[in-house]
Amino acid sequence: QVQLVESGGGLVQAGGSLRLSCAASGRTASSVAMGWFRQAPGKERDFVAAINWTGDSTYYADTVKGRFTISRDNAKNTVYLQMNSLKPEDTAVYYCAAGNPRRSSWYGIRREYDYWGQGTQVTVSS
User: Fold this and answer.
1) Per-residue pLDDT tens over the stretch 84-120
2) Are 72 and 34 in contact (CB under 8 A)?
3) Over the stretch 37-71, which tens digit does the pLDDT of each residue have?
4) Where are the beta strands (DSSP E) in 52-91?
5) Per-residue confidence (pLDDT) for residue 26, from 0 to 100
6) Residue 91 and residue 84: Cα distance in Å, rounded?
7) What's the pLDDT score for residue 97?
8) What does the angle CA 9 – CA 95 – CA 21 come to, to the nearest 5 degrees?
9) How far apart, in whole angstroms, are the C-alpha atoms of residue 115 and residue 91?
10) CA dist., res. 16 & res. 27, Å (int)
């Protein structure tokens, strides 16, 4: 079992930055892949970014590539999402997820993640 708690969401103006954190607890928290997904009102939950358990491979959705950076600190069992150059279309509830995708091409697939946090709201004003 892995428990996930997100923090760091809030209201920011377009062009600004936020850093989300996801604290993981549980016996295998440091040995699972971690991902961030987001869901805007009335839309599907979409992949944002992911990182493997060692932290040496990262994956991004095209919509955030070059603006967002995912990282992890296994000593603290925490994964981060640094979000720069935020746009109004980034507004959503952001969810942290943990799992073990068996192929690199599966890191962006929602069903590959077994554990989910409660979500944190990010609102970007224009």
Assistant:
1) 999 999 999 999 999 999 999 999 999 999 999 999 9
2) yes
3) 999 999 999 999 999 999 999 999 999 999 999 99
4) 58-60, 68-73, 78-83
5) 86
6) 13
7) 97
8) 50
9) 23
10) 36
